[in-house]
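Progress report, Aim 2. The chain analyzed during this reporting quarter is listed below.
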Amino acid sequence: MSHWSELMKEEEHQEGGDGRGREIGTMEYKHRDALWGLFRAELVYLTDQLKVIKDVFQGTLITAKDNGFLCDIDESTLFPNVNKLYKVSNSFSLDLYKMFTEGNASDESVVAALHEFSKKFHQPYQRYCLNYTRAAKYLKSLEKERSDFREYEKVCQEDSRCKKRQLSDLLICPMQHLMRYVILLEDIIKHVPDNDRCDLRCAITAIQDSLRSLESKLGTLQNFQRLQELDSILIWPKIDAMDKTVLIPDELKDLITENQSTLCSDGRHILHAGPLYLIENPKSTEVYAFLFDDMILVTRTNSSLRKRSVKSEHLASSVSSNGISSAFDTSGGLYDAEQRYLVYKQPLSLEEIKIHDIASAPGGCKHCFTIATYNRLMYCTGLFTFNAVTSTNKQLWLTKLRKSVEDFQNVHPQGGTLSRGRHDSNASAHADNASVSSSRSVDYSQVHHGNQNRSVKSTNSFRNRSDVANVQVKDKCTKRSQSS
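Predicted C-alpha cells for the chain:
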C-alpha cells in the first residue's frame, strides 16, 4: 500500500502517462496526495506509537500485576487516557481508509470522516495533555527509585515492537501528533481544488479551531504549572535579610514574617530566564534572573550561594571557550526543577524601569546592560548593572526586556509614572489646590449667608420688640388720660 491510487476503483483509476490517473487534474491529484499523507501519518501514529504504549508497556504492566509484581504502580497516572486515544485514532484511520476504498476520496466521504473526527478528538486529547506532566514526573520518580520498575522497562524495550524506545519517548508522541495535525490539515486545505467546496473547508476549519483552542488551554495550563513549580523552589527571605539596614521594632517582629511568593497570580506569564552576573561595587555576583510579563526577579542558586562572589576584573575569564558559563546548567528549559532559588533582590516592577545598553563596565565586562528603577515621583531609586555570558545572550535579554516593558505599558497605559511624566503630578497638585480653594470659598459663602440670615433675624427681632414697646407706651398714656 504505497499510494492512494492503488486503492481507487478501476473506473476512477485510468492509467495515464505515469500510470496514476492524470486525467483527474493536477490540483485534485495534489489534494488526494495531501489526504493520503494524513492517512499515512495517522496509521503510523496508531500502529507504531499508541499500539506500542497500549500493548507492550501497558499490557506488560497488567500481566505483571496479575502475577503479583508492581501491584502498587498507578496505571491510570502512568498511562493517562491512552485507551481512549487509541480508539479515536483507530476510528479515524478506518474512516480515512474507507474514504479511499469506498468513497473514492469524494468531498462527501472526506467531510464525513473529518466531521466525525472533530466530534471525538478534543476531549480525550485535552484530558491526556492535562495529565501528561503528572505522568512524566511519576515515570521519572519510578525510574529513579524503583529497581523493579527499571527491570520492567528493560523487558518492554526488548520487545521487537518497541524498537528499543523508552516509555518517556512514547508518552510524548500524542502531544507531538497534535502539532502534526495542524501541518497536515494546512496542506490539505492548501490544495483544495475549487473555492466553492465550502463543506470541505468548513470541516477542516472546525478541526483547526478546535486545535487552536486546545493549544491555548494547554499553554495556559503549562504556564500555571510552571509558575506553581517555580513557586515551590523559590526561597523568599525576610525583609531584614535582604536589607541589613532595616530596623524592625519589637512590636512588629511577630507581624513581619517571611515574604510569601505570589507568582501564581491570575494572568502572569514567565517570558525568559537565565544566568547573569550582577555587578556590584566592588564585586560581581552570580545570579539567575526571571523575566515575567509584569516584573523581574533576581535570585541566586544553591551553587552560586556556595561559591564566593567573583571579583569584577576576573569576570571575563569565568566564561568558557564556547561562551557559556560553566557555573550554570544549560541543559535547556527556563530553570532547573531540582535547584533552589533564593530571592536576592526585591522584585523590579516593569511599571517603573528603563533599560540601558552599556558598552562596557569596570573590570573588563563587555556584555553589560543596566536596569534603572524609578518611583512615582520620577526619582531614580536603583541601578542594577548586569553582565551576560555572551554578546548574543545580552542582545536576547535586551530584546526580551524592551518588548516586555513596551507590552506592559501598552496594557497599563495609566500605570507607569514614566509614561505620564512629571507634569501630570503638577497638574494633580494644581487640581488639588483648586479643589481646596473651591471648598474654602463654599465655606466662606456659607458663613456669609449665615451671617446675613442671623442679621436679618436680629433686625426682625429688634423690630418686633420695638413695636411691642410702642404699644405698651401708648396703653400707659391712654390710662393716665382717662384717670385725669
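The CA atoms of residues 61 and 152 lie 8 Å apart. The two ends are 152 Å apart (CA to CA). These observations will guide the mutagenesis work planned for the next reporting period.
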